[in-house]
Structures are given as C-alpha cells and as structure tokens.
C-alpha cells in the first residue's frame, strides 16, 4: 500500500523514480480506507533530504500511511525556504487537537548544547508531553533519542572525546521483541554524533530495554517496556552517501574531520561507499509500523 503525500512535495518525484508506491492526497480521498496517520517532527536542517529518507522507509510496508510534517514555531530554519515550510508543514499549535497513530522526531545538530539551551526545547517538551495521550507510538532518532531519554526518563548525555562517525557493527539482545524481529545477530548501522548515552544508565532504568548496542557497548536501539517510546541513537534513514557529504562539508569548513570509520572502501574517501544497512533499516521501520502502530492503535480515536 502507498504512502500518501502532496504531489508537489519534492520527495514525490524521487520516490516515484525509485518505484516506491506513493499516492497524492487528492487520489487518496477517493479510497474508503483508514490510513495510518503519522506525524514527522523534522528538526534536521536539510528538511527535503530527510523527508525523502524517511518516506522511503515508511513506503516499504503493506499499510497505507498518511504523513503530516511538523516544524518548530520557535526556531527559524535558515536552510529551507519559507515557501516549502508554508506549503508542506504545520506547527504544533495547528495539530495539537488531533490524534496520531505514530510520530517520528528526527535528530538535530544541537548535541553540544544543553537541552535547556536549545531555543525550541520548551516547544519540544510540549510535543513530547502531548504525545503521551495523543500518539500511539513515538520513534526518536539520534539527538531526539537523547532528548526523549532525558525528558521521559531523566537520563542525560555526555560529550564524546571525538565525533562518532561511521558504520558500526551491532549485536542484538531480547531477540524476541517484535521491533527487531528478523534481525541478524550482528548488523551494521551508521552513526554521526558528538555525544553519547551511558549503557549502564539505560540498563539501570527498569522502564527501558536495550535491544541493540555497538560491539563497544554503545546503546543504539532502545524501547520502553510499555512500548510507547523507541529510541535510535544512530541513523538508519541515512543514504549511502550521507556520511561522505558530512565529511566533505566538515573538510570544507576546515574542521579537519576524521574519516568515518568502516565506511569508505579501503578507508579511501575517493571511493564510493556501499549501502550496507538498507535491509535492516527497512525491517525496523516495517516492524514499527506493523507491531507498534497498526496493531496497537484504535480504528477510531475517541
């Protein structure tokens, strides 16, 4: 089944070329079907790229998905046009009276700031609090995962000695949990961040489970035992070349970045990296939509 998005959204043409089953909102209104309503709080600077990455993963499911994009009203984005935001995005104030089957909160390049120093932190706190009663399941990515751990469970983040960037092997635990059903015992996923989360702190909280961690004991996939919150400290949604573009960007800025680990063939930035996490990314998003959104959400919200 398709994802339903506006035909004018730039991601529409890209996904159509990739043979992702998409449907514009006009056609969707003619079908007598109850789609899953997913709201995406997009905090990333390059919003159009993040839209395409997430829609690609949401479209690989037998379920019809209707997507609403949200941007923060308390932060002016300098890397996306106001016309794009006005045409395709809403703010929390305009949707807070609604209920959604699922929500995704993306990462954001604000890791080095204390949470309280982020200019939209109070607004994000309102959204996370609202989600407790208005959303069936919430998927948090990278910085948003750390924000959720901090807001909901009081678990902080810490600065890393150097940026964590690259594609890392992970091992799973609690293999019977449906979110990672079908996962290999070891799998790869990309990370790109300056801060970390203590595995011991997460394991010490009886409300949480760590489902996958790096071989260096860095937690990656976490879930609350009530299955309301899912936290991913990495970037399953990344394209094969996203880390390469980040590396080139930082070199251009004169930041002397480290080469992403286990990413470029022969550790040579001139060689094209392979996409080695695609299958597990699709599997996780499909499992989330099926087991934590579709099977848990009421047909009609009351």
TrEMBL record:
SUPFAM superfamilies: Class I glutamine amidotransferase-like (SSF52317)
Keyword tags: Acyltransferase, Amino-acid biosynthesis, Cytoplasm, Methionine biosynthesis, Transferase
Chief localization: cytoplasm
Coiled coil: none
Amino acids binding substrate: 163, 192, 249
N-terminal signal peptide: none
This protein's pathway: Amino-acid biosynthesis; L-methionine biosynthesis via de novo pathway; O-acetyl-L-homoserine from L-homoserine: step 1/1
Catalytic reactions on record: L-homoserine + acetyl-CoA = O-acetyl-L-homoserine + CoA
Organism superkingdom: Bacteria
Record site: Important for acyl-CoA specificity: 111
Site note Important for substrate specificity, residues: 192
Active site residues per record: 142 (acyl-thioester intermediate), 235 (proton acceptor), 237
Entry EC number(s): 2.3.1.31
Cellular location(s): Cytoplasm
Listed GO MF terms: homoserine O-succinyltransferase activity
CDD domains per record: GATase1_HTS
One Pfam family, short name: HTS
HAMAP family membership: MetA_acyltransf
Function: Transfers an acetyl group from acetyl-CoA to L-homoserine, forming acetyl-L-homoserine.
Family membership: Belongs to the MetA family.
Protein's name according to its UniProt entry: Homoserine O-acetyltransferase
Organism whose genome encodes this protein: Virgibacillus dokdonensis
């Amino acid at each position: 089944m398709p994802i339903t998005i506006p035909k004018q959204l730039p991601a529409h043409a890209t996904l159509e070329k990739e043979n992702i089953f998409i449907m514009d909102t006009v056609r969707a209104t003619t079908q007598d079907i109850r789609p899953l309503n997913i709201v995406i709080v997009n905090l990333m600077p390059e919003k159009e790229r993040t839209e395409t990455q997430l829609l690609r993963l949401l479209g690989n499911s037998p379920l019809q998905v209707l997507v609403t994009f949200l941007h923060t009203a308390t932060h002016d984005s300098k890397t996306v046009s106001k016309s794009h935001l006005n045409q395709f995005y809403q703010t929390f104030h305009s949707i807070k009276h609604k209920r959604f089957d699922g929500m995704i909160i993306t990462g954001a390049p604000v890791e080095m700031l204390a949470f309280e120093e982020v200019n939209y932190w109070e607004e994000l706190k309102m959204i996370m609090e609202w989600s407790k009663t208005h959303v069936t399941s919430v998927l948090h990515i990278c910085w948003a995962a750390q924000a959720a751990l901090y807001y909901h469970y009081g678990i902080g983040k810490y600065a890393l000695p150097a940026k964590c960037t690259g594609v890392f092997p992970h091992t799973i635990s609690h293999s019977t949990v449906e979110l990672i059903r079908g996962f290999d015992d070891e799998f790869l996923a990309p990370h790109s961040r300056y801060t970390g989360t203590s595995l011991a702190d997460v394991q010490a909280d009886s409300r949480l489970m760590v489902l996958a961690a790096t071989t260096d004991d860095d937690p990656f996939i976490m879930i609350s035992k009530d299955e309301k919150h899912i936290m991913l400290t990495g970037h399953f949604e990344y394209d094969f070349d996203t880390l390469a573009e980040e590396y080139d960007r930082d070199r251009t800025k004169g930041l002397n970045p480290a080469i992403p680990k286990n990413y470029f063939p022969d550790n040579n930035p001139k060689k094209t990296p392979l996409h080695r996490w695609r299958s597990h990314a699709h599997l996780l998003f499909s499992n989330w939509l099926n087991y934590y959104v579709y099977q848990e959400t009421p047909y009609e919200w009351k």
